[in-house]
Amino acid sequence: MILAKGTLHVVGFGPGGKDHMTFKAAEAISKADVVTGYTTYVKLMKPIFPDKEYKATGMIKEVERCRMAIEDAMTGKDVAMISSGDSGIYGMAGIIYQLADEMKADIDIDVVPGITAASTAASVLGAPLMHDLAIISLSDLMTPIDLIMKRVDCAGIGDMIVCLYNPKSKGRTEYLAQAQEILLKHRKADTPVGIVRNAGRDDEKSTITTLGDLDKADVDMFCIVIIGNSQTYVSNGRMITPRGYRLEE
């Protein structure tokens, strides 16, 4: 028997609620035969799509999870591989393509973008990402810390807005302070810094501090840290980075 070609939708569902999800993401999940993802992400989706068949794996099981999704698609099923934020920014899109090639999987792959954490956090803080920016993860699980800090330094040299993902965990308490020290070589201590915890979720919290005081801020893995460039300022409790428009004629 020849099985029909399955489709694997690599879906970024945004922060976690349906109000921040694209129509295409919601459609891909609602039509899927199987929804696969990290355990925490599956828990977020079950209340929104309660009647789906779910498959989940825990932390550091990304390869196993993706293989499982590809294998299901190879049997002709319509599969949604879900992840928070955007599927192509620290998401599952890259590894799905890599594994599908390795497995010689005759399936259709559909990458469905979502709102990444940087965009969500920025909307809470005001308009801090209005110019060139760098998104850098401080997790050294996949990337050597020396290379990460080199990227931070390059972003500082280029006066780029810096958005830090995975800024601090119980096992990585010093990397944020290292990034702060590097950036202080390139910009003033009073540079605005926005911190958003659980961006776009029910228990969302935010605060604005400065680059000089960043080491004193309450930051963990659920936070996004946005460090302004040399032009970023704070007005009425909002971070704003000018794009360069002439406001007066």
- Measure the end-to-end span: 72 Å
Oligomeric form of this entry? Answer: single chain
Radius of gyration: 20 Å
The DSSP helix count reads 7
Spatial strand sequence of the major β-sheet = 3-2-4-1-5
CATH homologous superfamily identity of the largest domain: Tetrapyrrole methylase, C-terminal domain
Main sheet characteristics: 5 strands, parallel
How many domain regions? 2
Short description:
This protein has 249 residues and is of the alpha/beta class. Helix content is 28%, strand content 25%. A five-stranded parallel beta sheet has the order 3-2-4-1-5, sandwiched between helices. Strands 7-8-11-9-10 form a five-stranded mixed beta sheet, sandwiched between helices.
Topology:
Elements: E1 7-12, H1 23-31, E2 34-38, H2 39-45, E3 53-57, H3 62-74, E4 78-83, H4 93-102, E5 108-112, H5 117-125, E6 126-127, E7 133-137, H6 145-157, E8 161-165, H7 175-183, E9 192-197, E10 205-210, E11 223-227, E12 233-235, E13 238-240
Can you put this structure into words, describing what you see?
- The chain has 249 residues and is an alpha/beta fold.
- It folds into two domains: 109 residues, Cobalt-precorrin-4 Transmethylase, domain 1 (3-Layer(aba) Sandwich); 123 residues, Methyltransferase, Cobalt-precorrin-4 Transmethylase, Domain 2.
- The protein is built from seven helices and 13 strands.
- The strands form three sheets. The protein has a five-stranded parallel sheet, sandwiched between helices.
- Strand 12 and strand 13 form a beta hairpin.
- The relative contact order is 0.14.
